[in-house]
Design goal:
- The chain is α+β, with helices and mostly antiparallel strands.
- About 50% of the residues lie in helices and about 10% in strands.
- The protein has a five-stranded mixed beta sheet with strand order 1-2-8-5-3. A three-stranded antiparallel beta sheet has the order 4-12-9.
- Helix 10 crosses helix 12 and helix 12 (about 235-270) crosses helix 18.
- It is globular, with a radius of gyration of 22 Å.
- The termini are far apart.
- Bound molecules: protoporphyrin IX containing FE.
- Protoporphyrin IX containing FE binds next to helix 12 and helix 18.
């Protein structure tokens, strides 16, 4: 067995927690000092603003250069300052500036996939490419054209090894700095790959810094020119590199795996597929056959069924499905009827929350209908992006990407599952983030000319 597989097994505590919740209810002890909660109603008390908890050392595996990033920071003031600085890159205005490029890129993906048919196409790898490209366009401010030219990018290999890196360094933190020197290839390989990507990314940041302010990537300009209030200075090259790479990991695999699950779940259910096709046909009668004008984002964002499909995919296949542990820092903390002492680790996992039958009746079933209508219990219970001061910073960006790709893909193509596609290929493999185990979504695509 590979070292990585052994570690993977060690980290499979999320399944055990889910089993305990199924057997014993919403509140279970899953470690000598750790309590897991699975009722969406309890989430504000754990993750909300002002709650006296901090991320645990579990997160230390998420760094790349040795510097902390926004995701791994565990000092409150340090994180608040970085969050304030980074939020500028995720505000509505800079995100909306990216929309025309994202629409064009998705259209390019449709052309590429069309050129690969007819017959079986594994769209999984293409979804990863476009997910990576969206984040590279956002952070580095340039389009690497991976989809159009079918070219390689150094980040792609790094994305593949990151889950193992995260897992092993969560258990053996010293490997973060010494992993490249371990004399066994199966251990040092992911660290070597990561080191070369860090060096490459650092050279890009250095290059950006030499440019006139107006020519820099807006994302990098903000981080290199605006002060981080905790550091009382703008970020240095290595800190910017750390934030770019961590954004890449937080944002690309999560979104593309969500898309992979969504494409499969919609195509596998004839009724859901027809409802979505009908909504898209009515909203966009002309593109792509009678007009080159791409669908408008404002229109895409208002489509009720499309957005219900996205929410249901985020619920049924949460790509951050596992434990998000926090340590209590005040003398005690009350969560529901339980009062827990300082130092206790409290956690919840989206997989268990999203299977809560009180909020999601018949929770196993992929059913976008549960998100239609105004005040549904399902909307209250959805926790895909977590919440509060450590909730997902890229939430708006992720939803934007999901809306654009889902709308354009299902409007452009008539989609069928390839006869060789198997349900078990979509079992979720989890190493902090979740993705389809077989890395296959096998589809038959035909341009929709109606
Ligand atoms: C479907 C896609 C996504 C899902 C399901 C998701 C989910 C989450 C969740 C659950 C957390 C909290 C994790 C924890 O506390 O352990 C988180 C944090 C975070 N996410 Fe996302 N995310 C997605 C996409 C993105 C994107 C596109 C970006 C950026 C480009 C991003 C950036 C971040 C960052 C920076 C944090 C850490 C925030 C902090 O600690 O202040 N995510 N995400």
């Amino acid at each position: 067995m590979e070292v990585w597989e052994a570690l993977d097994t060690l980290l499979q505590r999320d399944d055990a927690a889910e089993e305990a919740h199924l057997r014993y209810g919403d509140i279970v002890r899953i470690g000598p000092n750790e309590i897991s909660f699975s009722n969406p109603g309890q989430m504000k008390a754990i993750y909300g603003h002002g709650v006296p908890v901090l991320k645990t050392d579990f997160y230390q595996g998420g760094t790349f250069t040795g510097k902390d990033n926004i995701f791994t920071m565990r000092i409150r003031e340090q994180h608040a300052a970085r969050r304030k600085l980074m939020s500028r890159n995720f505000a509505q205005a800079p995100l909306m500036e990216l929309v025309p490029q994202f629409l064009k890129k998705t259209e390019a993906l449709c052309h590429k996939l069309e050129s690969l048919g007819p017959g079986q196409i594994n769209v999984y790898g293409w979804l990863h490419r476009i997910g990576l490209e969206f984040i590279l366009m956002q952070t580095l401010g340039s389009d690497p054209k991976l989809t159009e030219n079918d070219t390689h990018h150094p980040a792609l290999r790094d994305l593949e090894v990151f889950p193992e890196n995260f897992a092993i360094t969560a258990i053996f933190p010293f490997l973060k700095t010494h992993g490249v020197n371990v004399p066994f290839q199966s251990v040092n390989r992911p660290f070597r790959i990561q080191a070369s990507w860090v060096a490459y990314c650092m050279s890009l940041v250095k290059e950006e810094r030499t440019k006139e302010s107006k020519d820099k990537s807006p994302w990098i300009r903000r981080l290199t020119e605006i002060e981080d209030e905790f550091l009382a200075r703008p970020l240095e090259d290595i800190e910017v590199t750390e934030e770019i790479i961590s954004t890449l990991f937080a944002g690309s695999g999560t979104t593309s795996a969500t898309l992979a699950f969504l494409l499969y779940a919609v195509t596998a259910d004839q009724q859901i597929y027809s409802n979505l096709k009908q909504e898209l046909h009515e909203a966009f009668p002309d593109w792509p056959n009678n007009s080159d004008v791409l669908p408008l984002i404002g229109q895409i964002q208002k489509l009720p069924f499309l957005n219900a499909v996205i929410n249901e995919s985020l619920r049924r296949f949460p790509t951050i499905p596992g434990s998000m542990p926090r340590r209590i820092t005040s003398s005690s903390l009350k969560i529901g009827d339980s009062t827990l002492p300082k130092g206790t680790v409290v956690s919840s996992q989206n997989y268990s929350l999203h299977m809560n039958e009180e909020y999601f009746p018949n929770a196993e079933k992929f059913d976008p209908g549960r998100f239609l209508g105004e005040n549904t219990k399902a909307k209250e219970g959805l926790n895909s992006f977590s919440e509060g001061p450590r909730g997902c910073l890229g939430r708006n960006l992720a939803v934007l990407e999901l809306q654009i790709v889902t709308a354009l893909f299902f409007r452009y193509f008539n989609v069928k599952l390839d006869p060789t596609m198997r349900d078990e290929y979509m079992t979720m493999k989890v190493i902090f983030s979740g993705s389809p185990v077989a890395e296959k979504v096998l589809l038959n695509l035909e341009k929709d000319i109606s």
